[in-house]
Amino acid sequence: MAINQQLCLQRRPSGEVCKEDFFLRETDIPDLEDGQFLVRNEYISIDPAMRGWIQDQESYFPPVQLGEPMRGLTVGRIEASRHPSYSVGDLATGMLNMQTYAISDGFQIRKVDPDIAPPPAWLGGLGMPGITAYFGLLDIGRPMKGDTVVVSAASGAVGSIVGQIAKNLGCRVIGIVGSDKKSKYIVEELGFDAAINYKSEPIGLALSDLCPEKIDVYFDNVAGKALDSILPFMKKFGRIPLCGMISIKPGEPARLDNFFALISNSIRLQGFVMSDYVPKIKMAVDELKAWHQSGQLIFKEDVRTTHLENFPEVINDLFSGKNEGKLVMKLSND
Amino acid sequence: MAINQQLCLQRRPSGEVCKEDFFLRETDIPDLEDGQFLVRNEYISIDPAMRGWIQDQESYFPPVQLGEPMRGLTVGRIEASRHPSYSVGDLATGMLNMQTYAISDGFQIRKVDPDIAPPPAWLGGLGMPGITAYFGLLDIGRPMKGDTVVVSAASGAVGSIVGQIAKNLGCRVIGIVGSDKKSKYIVEELGFDAAINYKSEPIGLALSDLCPEKIDVYFDNVAGKALDSILPFMKKFGRIPLCGMISIKPGEPARLDNFFALISNSIRLQGFVMSDYVPKIKMAVDELKAWHQSGQLIFKEDVRTTHLENFPEVINDLFSGKNEGKLVMKLSND
Lengths: 334, 334
Known about the structure:
Number of helices of chain A: 9
Oligomer: homodimer
């Protein structure tokens, strides 16, 4: 009989996440009740937010408790079902956590159609990052045709979608990235108008060349120095959807030298998370799918085939910028 | 013949504003042209924003240039007029700067009716601070009846109006101040529900007692530590109108340990200045007047009768919290 393997939180990390912060637990898989189905997880989404979920701090989700399986979005295949809408062989995605098997009653689960995009894309462009990009840009950033939109972590899972949507709306789009390879990727493959490699040139200097008419929307995935450098270049009544703080380590403060620009240019800085938009997720995914199918939205995933216990080294690649596109673990069958 | 005395910027202050940063200049008063009138300034508004106007930094106004008269809002009496709508003896308010006489064509000048409130109140509750409080609270904070509203610098020119408007709307209102005397004033005279003296108790500790259901709107006049302490107490989808940064000296950074709360609670932090609302100012003043006349809005001014050259010591009282209510200079005739 199958055994469920779970990656559980052993202790809260201080600094970088490491192997010793987790342990593997094996448990039996209980029998299904009516209205339930059993999913075998095949892909697990690796997201910057995970680092926050294992801190002992109140947030939009409760912290993962010690001894509990690590929270995670997955795509898996249904192996048994007593649920009328889910059949054996179907692919499904949802918050099914870092484990080989999960039982679900269908709550906040979406079906995955591999004819529209391969399963890992449902954790990227058609998953949390895509939906986050969609609502942050459209509902908070509110760009208009002709606006200048800047996005940080622009080759990443969220940033790459933000930039492409903004281009689809007729905006001028500038991406901030951490390597020349990524600069080339977002301009040549994704169609951004320009890229700034923050490691090789000061963001402020680059912006004064690239944005003589200043910035309408800055979609912020990183906070920290990038946000501070961009504040003086925001246009009057500019909008900053604040999506992530990948550049700030847990426990570190944000230091903003240009904070006053928020007042002097009447700027709106607004945090949000995907779960604010739960009732509208289907609408977003339908539009993302349509753009993808018409070739106006390219998805890229960086799939690492490995075992659950290697999660720490995979997620650390996110923070050092070693991934290329949406980072996904594929659970190895070895 | 009358001579115009002007307080002009000599050099840009480093640190506290001091006497040596300004000089007095005497100039002739030119003859009036058609459509102009001559105002003799009687009262000058002393505002925290003045410290920013003399820095060499782009803002919502251009910086005051070296050798130019200091910018300032005034109330004065018309001594001569070739303008059809302004007559000798009328009182008027507008940006007529730190000088004894000013010539105006009526652009952005409002008439002052001393039967509604005495002239200094037209620089406070019926002037920039009142209008700023009105739009920041109503347009950005958007409180609803029953909401919890917190305001910093709560006994000051803007904060005292914010709190009273919020009370008029049926909110629960907590003010942050810097002395027990001010605590007593805002609760007993202005009708706030509670006060926190940040000098005698940590803001966070006080809020956990006073706001078990957290805060809907934080009207921020100070930034800095108060903002940081309040962030973790903001309710999901809370709003923070960012009006001033009186606690941060020019050139100092904002340091926010709790910046992530903006994301985890989907908070909107939005800067603004009164001039964003120029087309709607009459509407605001009409409503402020009505509240004042019905006794629902109390104004308090701290009028210092002195000479132009004493401006530096008067404004420094603002930042050390020595004023009580709206700080106004009355030009002495001695």
